[in-house]
Every structure is written in C-alpha cells, then in structure tokens.
Design goal:
The protein has 13 helices and 28 strands. It has 500 residues and is an alpha/beta fold. It folds into two domains: 288 residues, FAD/NAD(P)-binding domain; 194 residues, FAD/NAD(P)-binding domain. It starts with 11 loop residues before the first strand and ends with a strand. Belongs to the FAD-binding monooxygenase family.
C-alpha cells in the first residue's frame, strides 16, 4: 500500500477517524452510507489497514469470537469457518474497505499526536506526524472519532523476570513475533494462560519437540466447533444474507445465554466447565490443578479453543500444562518456586497487553488538558466535558464488533440530529455531579487492572453506565433518542447553549 501525502494545514474535515482497524473501517462505512455528504478521513499510524489482524503474526492467531457476530452486520461472513484465523479476517476487513470506497479515505503512516478543541471555532485542531518521514502537519475537523482500540501497538506487556539475561535462547513476545523464529524440534515454554497462550500451544506443538504452557493461575477454557454447522446450513438453504442474519441472531442469543448462566449460576457453570474439560483430557489428569480458576466464570473472559485443539495436543503428549510461579530464568530454562526446573530452548511471553486509551493522544479543551480519569463515559462512546469526540470500545463479554456497529449507528444519528437542528457542538455533562462512579471496565483481566486508574470512569445510572449487554444497547443506541437531558447541544455563532 502506498502512503498518501500528508494533508495540508488548511484541510478541514467533518469527521476524522483515528485507526484503520475493524472499528475504524466500520465507522467509515456507516458514515459513507448514512451521511454521504460528510467529509472524512481515516488516519492510520501503521502502513496497512486491519489493526490487530495485520499487526499480530504469531502462529495460529485467530478470533475466539464467531465471525457471524464478530463480523459486520452489513457484510455477511461467507467462509465456512466460523472461528477464523487472522488472514481470513484480514481479507474480510480489506474487502469491506474496498467495496465501500474506504481505501481512498485512508492515510497510512499518519500518527495523531494531539488534538485541541476550540469552543470559539467549534472544531478540533489535530497534530499529525508522518511515521515514516517525521514530517508534521495539522488538520481540523468538526468531530474526532477514536477507533484505535485500547492497547499499545508498539509494545506488549512483559513483567520483570529475575535472571532473564542468563537465558541462552530467544525470548519472544507474541506482539513482536520474528518472521525467522525457528522452533522446529525445540523445547518451547509459553508463559501465560489467556487467549494468546491457548492459541500458540496447539499451533506450535506439531513442529516443536514439546510445548509447555506455564501459567500462574488457570483460566476457564471451553472447546467450540471451528465450523458452525447450523449457520452454514442456514446460509445454504435460505440464502447468504438471510442465512447470515439468522445465524447472527442465533449466536447473539447463544452468547447472552452463556454469559447470563455463568453470572447467575457461577457454581453450576464451574461444574459444567470442569465436566467438559475432564472429558477432553486424559484419564486421571489433574483437572483441578490446571483448569480450575480461583475466580468465577466471566470474572475474566472465557478462552475458546476451536475443535478442542489445546486438549488434543495434551492428550497426544505434545504439550504440557504447568501451574507454578517463576523464581528465575536459568541458562537452560526456568526455575520455578516449587523447585522444579523447566528446560527450554525458546520462551514465549504471552503475558498480555499494555492498555492505552485513545492511542495515547493528548487531548485539550479550550487550552485545558483532558485528564481521562476525571471524565465519565457517556453511553460508552463519549466523555463528559469533551465536545464532539466519540470513541469505539466494544464488548468484553461478547463479540467486540456487536457494540461497535450499534455505536456507529448512534453516532450517525447524532450527527444527523445536529444538522437538522442547526447545532455544531454537543457535550455530555452529568446533571448530578455527585453521582457515584466506578471503573469504566468492570473486568478482572490483568491488562485492565494495570491500567484502570488511567481510564475514564462510569456512573451508576444511564446514560453514564457502560453497558455490556447487546439487547440493552439495541434499545439505547439504535432505538433510543439521541436527544438527552445530559447532552448539551449548542451553535457557536449564537454563543448560546441549549438542551435539546
């Protein structure tokens, strides 16, 4: 992909989208379809579209959400594999961009450094740097839409390990997977037990001499079918679009049922997951040691393994799970707190991500820097006291894109409402300044806990609650009015605010 030239300082756009991943491409498509007269551009710091699905290159990378719900509502997923690998997902995203004319609006190697809002001009001034040349430029826009996800693209999370420098082999983080890494016939230790680790282990096991998944704490892991037989049958007999729509509805209901059951009946859910794991593992396997977490199901995200591939390589003796803590690295592996030593030729640190909201963009409003922890999330898509800014954060308990689609629809309805009423500015403000608050993401994952103090917060009532329920969000974002007593609309020329 050839980079576009840096925009001139005089260029003004109605909407500036930051990030050309699944959220940014989706936002652009909704804008083009619902508000075709609006001018917009996507700024992407990297040299290619696709976000996560282009960045990560480790073996076996895939989605653990089905593509009938992880895909866009407006574009059917045609592949027979419902749990798909990264190349298939990337093709799908790039097809979406090409089919909707989004490529022409995308500017690669454009990193947004900061954005400042002027109430007098009712616009954002955005500072951009060309990542490939270091050249800087300025754009202005009426709305800033942050679609860059929630983690740092340039740096994964690796905890400090005692004696790491002594280890003679390569130590690799999955976010920075070397293309030339040779692990054939070698002993591999994968540190971690989340979605990345359970993907890597079965993918590396056929080539490596042996793979050990070293975890500090077990994770709930469930086998799922890579192909959705019901969805494939529906598409075959009812046609692509109708079959896809019904498959999507089926899977949305199924995801909600599983999550609701786990939250309402955690003890029963724990027993059921343990029973499924026991059937997948060899007779006499210590299930409670390695697959029985100390927390309830969905306190952290459940890990899905397509066709039970992780359990299969354990049964075949190609992979082992060890639950222990690392005392230190040694020249030939890792010394554990139990006194056991794991021999290794290659170590993979599948230890998580570094969360960074809004891509680390420095935001100011009328000269005052925005402190994210001092803001509240409005409908899970805007920030209190920050005008004309929207952001895309999906579900943590379901398919990410389900929420992205709804908030993009709502965003377009909001802009249409402003045009119809002659407004150029809107700003969320809570009518109750003393409203109790809590963290933006009520989620126990380590990467969230490490960053929770740097993120916005949420309130204890709508519209300040961050919903993680698709059915509730359909009512709020798709069916509900965009006008709200806690969303202040104004027109700059009149210098007057009015509640719509």
């Amino acid at each position: 992909m050839s980079p576009s030239p840096v925009a001139s300082a005089a260029e003004h756009l109605d909407v500036l989208i930051v990030g050309a991943g699944i959220s940014g491409i989706g936002a652009a498509r909704y804008l083009k379809t619902e508000l075709p007269s609006k001018s917009f551009a996507i700024l992407e710091a990297r040299g290619a579209s696709g976000g996560t699905w282009d960045l990560f290159r480790y073996p076996g990378i895939r989605s653990d959400s089905d593509l009938h719900t992880f895909g866009y509502e407006f574009k059917p997923w045609r592949d027979e594999q419902s749990i798909a690998d990264a190349p298939r997902i990337l093709d799908y995203l790039r097809q979406t961009a090409a089919e909707n004319g989004i490529d022409a609006h995308t500017r690669y190697h454009h990193e947004v450094l900061g954005a400042s809002w002027s109430s007098d001009e009712a616009r954002w001034t955005v500072e951009v740097e060309r990542a490939d040349t270091g050249e800087r430029a300025t754009l202005t826009c009426g709305w800033l839409f942050c679609a860059g996800g929630y983690y740092r693209y340039d740096e994964g999370f690796t905890p400090a390990f005692e004696g790491l420098e002594r280890f003679r082999g390569p130590v690799v983080h999955p976010q920075h997977w070397p293309e030339d890494l040779d692990y054939a016939g070698k002993r591999v230790v994968v540190i971690g037990s989340g979605a990345t680790a359970v993907t890597l282990v079965p993918s590396m096991a056929p080539t490596a001499a042996h793979v050990t998944m070293l975890q500090r704490t077990p994770t709930y892991i469930l086998p799922i079918s890579r192909a959705d037989a019901v969805a494939n049958a529906l598409k075959k007999y009812l046609g692509e679009r109708r079959g896809y729509a019904l498959s999507r509805r089926k899977n949305i209901a199924q995801q909600r049922l599983v999550w609701s059951f786990c939250r309402r009946f955690p003890k029963a859910a724990r027993r059921l997951i343990r029973w499924i794991n026991t059937r997948q593992l060899p007779a006499g396997y210590p299930v409670d040691e390695h697959f029985n977490p100390p927390y309830d199901p969905w306190d952290q995200r459940l890990c899905a393994v397509p066709d039970g591939d992780l359990f299969r390589v354990i049964r075949e003796g190609r992979a082992t799970v060890v639950t222990d803590r690392i005392a230190s690295f040694t020249e030939g592996g890792l010394l554990l707190e139990s006194g056991r030593e794991l021999e290794a030729d290659v170590v993979v640190t599948a230890t998580g991500l570094n969360v960074r909201a809004f891509g680390g963009i420095r935001l100011t409003v009328d000269g005052r820097e925005v402190s994210l922890p001092d803001t509240l999330a409005y409908k899970g898509m805007m920030l209190s006291g920050v005008p004309n800014l929207a952001f895309a954060i999906g579900y943590t308990n379901s398919s990410w894109t389900l929420k992205i689609g709804l908030l993009c629809e709502h965003f377009c309805r909001l802009l249409a409402h402003m045009d119809a009423h002659g407004h150029d500015t809107c700003r969320p403000e809570p009518t109750d300044p003393g409203m109790p608050t809590r963290p933006f993401l009520d989620f126990g994952a380590g990467y969230v806990r490490r960053a929770v103090d740097s993120l916005p917060r949420q309130g204890d009532r709508m519209p300040w609650l961050t919903s993680m329920d698709y059915r509730d969000d359909v009512k709020l974002l798709r069916s509900g009015s965009v006008a709200d007593p806690e969303l202040i609309f104004s027109r700059t020329e009149a210098r007057s605010g009015a509640r719509a």
